[in-house]
Design goal:
Blueprint (H helix, E strand, L loop, with lengths): L1 H18 L5 E9 L2 E8 L4 E11 L2 E13 L5 E9 L2 E9 L5
Antiparallel strand pairs: 1-2, 2-3, 3-4, 4-5, 5-6
């Protein structure tokens, strides 16, 4: 009886696992320069990201300054967009809810 229950449970789990949608990359672009990089992508589940970076000099030190954004559909049914900068002054995000259908 327990072997039969195990086999049935396994078949159910396998059916559910294959029924899940696989996420695909719809668009992707990247470019690396001597003084920075750019990239962006969008996926079939509604996630997107765009980023630009360049070398910055602060005093005697070199680092990288980044500007970008990403968006994603959340479990609450809303789509959130985060735009940010990250540089010698820290990470500064701004978050907003996108209007329905703007993705």
């Amino acid at each position: 009886m327990s072997l039969k229950l195990f086999v049935i449970s396994f078949v159910i789990v396998a059916a559910v696992a294959t029924a899940e949608d696989k996420v695909e990359i719809l668009t992707e672009r990247s470019f690396v320069r001597e003084n920075g990089y750019d990239f962006e992508f969008k996926t079939s589940d509604g996630v997107s990201r765009k980023e630009q970076a360049q070398l910055i000099t602060v005093g005697d030190h070199q680092g990288i300054g980044i500007q970008g954004s990403y968006s994603y559909p959340a479990p609450d049914g809303l789509t959130y967009e985060v735009t940010f900068t990250a540089d010698d002054k820290g990470y500064k995000p701004q978050i907003r809810v996108l209007p329905t259908g703007s993705q």
